[in-house]
Amino acid sequence: MNKFVTVGALAMLMGGTAMAETIGVSVARFDDNGLTIMRNGMTDHVETLDGVELIMEDAQDDVARQLDQINNFIASGVDAIIVNAVDTNATEAMSQAAASAGVPMVYVNRQPINMDTLPEGQAFVASNEIESGTLKAFEICKNLRAAGKSGGATAYMLMGQLSNQAAVQRSKDVEDVIGMDMCNFITLIDKQTANWSRDQAQDLMTNWISSGEPFDAVFANNDEMAIGAIQAMKAAGISMDDVEVGGVDATPDALVSMQAGDMDVTVFQDLAGQGAGSIDTAIKLANGDDVDKTVFIPFKLVTPDNVSEYLQ
């Protein structure tokens, strides 16, 4: 049986009567590598469950489109909604729409701005972003000290979309770490957003390199931007042995880059686990079970010493 249907087909099938365990999912961007892993985690998990249908929609990084998708899910009579928010500052309206209709809602991967006031029947499944940037930044700090650069090192920081809570928190994590006594020898030359994009990060890194300012490290809010920075550095003839580069997510491309000796640090975010966890949480809410408002799935540090475990 096909477990994935469109909104229009669902409305015809339901004829105004709600089907058991029908879950609408709105994902910020289908073409994001990390979010693709999360989506695959959802679809793979649903294949192991009986009587669960998914309607999955691409918000294409458009807040208005995402809100329309949520309203369409509600009108179609879904049992629960999962949202990977385009803009975490816009989640209050989404929560209100679902709560008014009495439809349970689960936010996944990106923390809603109204986390402290989520209505009953709503929850958040993700990893604790305080861990992600902190683990990465502290490892780069240790590596720079081990390389004899504790007398002074400089770095750039590539940030995700500034409307996104994860980007804000991961950037703060880095600045908090380099503010510690052990790591305050690191100075940020510049920090700018590359919107989670490999291509934008490559362009931005190329501009930074053209300034001629020497640097020792690149902190990226995600692996895609870290890879973009690496591509720019290699194109400019910079040896990756001379620069520490760290990202977040431990995507397959990042692990290959690390194995090749280009990326130094990433942080495994169990995106597939988040996807599966959001499905389980949505089902529990739909069944009226008690659910914690926050369900955290731990981050794990990935370095060249243990990268083989994650490649497997």
Defining key terms:
11 helices, 43% helix, single chain, 312 residues, disordered N terminus, 6-stranded parallel sheet, alpha/beta
Strand content: 15-25%
Mean of residue pLDDT values: 92
Please state how the strands of the largest beta sheet are arranged side by side. 2-1-3-4-5-11
Poorly predicted parts: 1-19
Q: Termini separation (Å)?
A: 31 Å
Indicate the overall shape: elongated
Portion of residues within helices: 40-55%
Task: Tell me about this structure.
43% of the residues lie in helices and 18% in strands. It is built from 11 helices and 12 strands. The strands form 3 sheets. A 6-stranded parallel sheet has the order 2-1-3-4-5-11, sandwiched between helices. It has a 4-stranded parallel sheet with strand order 7-6-8-9, sandwiched between helices. Helix 8 (223-235) links the parallel strand 8 and strand 9. Helix 2 (33-46) packs across helix 10 and helix 7 (198-210) crosses helix 8. The longest helix is centred in the middle third of the chain and has 18 residues, at 129-146. It is elongated.
